[in-house]
Amino acid sequence: MAAPTKPVLERYFNVKQACDRLGLSDPNDPEDKRGQKWIRDGVNQEQDPFPCSRMARQLLFTEADLAEIAMRHHNRRHGNSGTRRKKRTTKAPLVAAA
After folding, report:
1. Which residues are CB-contacts of 60 (< 8 A; sequence separation ≥ 6)?
2. What is the per-residue pLDDT across 45-78, written as a single tens digit (0 to 9) for each?
3. Three-class SS string for 10-53?
4. What pLDDT does residue 39 have?
5. Number of domains the chain is built from
6. How far apart (Å, rounded) are the C-alpha atoms in residues 94 and 54?
7. CA of 49: how far to CAs of 2, 32, 45, 46, 93, in Å?
8. DSSP state of 95
9. Among 18, 23, 27, 67, which residue's CB has the most CB atoms within a 10 Å radius?
10. Is residue 84 part of a domain?
11. In a domain, 80, yes or no
12. Residue 33 lies in a domain
């Protein structure tokens, strides 16, 4: 009979730490909250939300959660990144000099 293994506690990151870990915050601007908002919006979306844990009314992320988020968005093709058609231009008619 095998001895029971002890559960291993993973390291958890709060939203700000997760944002720093994913490289979404500007290190020169401590007031930059765009990355944090993106993470919170990703967790709260109805279709395919970001993986996270909720403890003590906080969002917490493990290394595995952050790796999953990064993998989902690695080289992600956005709807507006396709080839673009050239704009149709109309040339003004030449006016003969009098």
Report:
1. 12, 13, 14, 52, 53, 54
2. 999 999 999 999 999 999 999 999 999 887 756 6
3. CCCECHHHHHHHHCCCCCCCCCCCHHHHHHHHHHHCCCCCCCCE
4. 95
5. 1
6. 69
7. 38, 23, 5, 6, 55
8. P
9. 18
10. no
11. no
12. yes
